[in-house]
Amino acid sequence: MSNISYHYATVLKAINELREKGYTEDFNLEENCLTCISGNFNHDEFEISDIYFYEGESNPDDEATVYGIVSTSGVKGILVTGDETTSSPMENKVIEKLLIHRKRK
């Protein structure tokens, strides 16, 4: 079950809190998977454990989401995204999973 936090502290604070919890990898969104030094993970090979959502008070372009992610093989890491709605079609499965998890709360 995801732990979704909506607060207006900094993105750096969320990243630091996740690092303290053992989220050591830095995930990147590429084509149809998440990538990090430990490997590539398709949309069905990871779960989202924590979400920190930030909205820009005056500019919607300031939106950011910090995801704590755990792969099925136990790799724990962080993905920081901006506006997910502008992703390429190749990223849709991963983005869809991220958005579904964010909307659960």
Automatic annotation (TrEMBL):
This is Phosphoribosylpyrophosphate synthetase. It comes from the Bacteria.
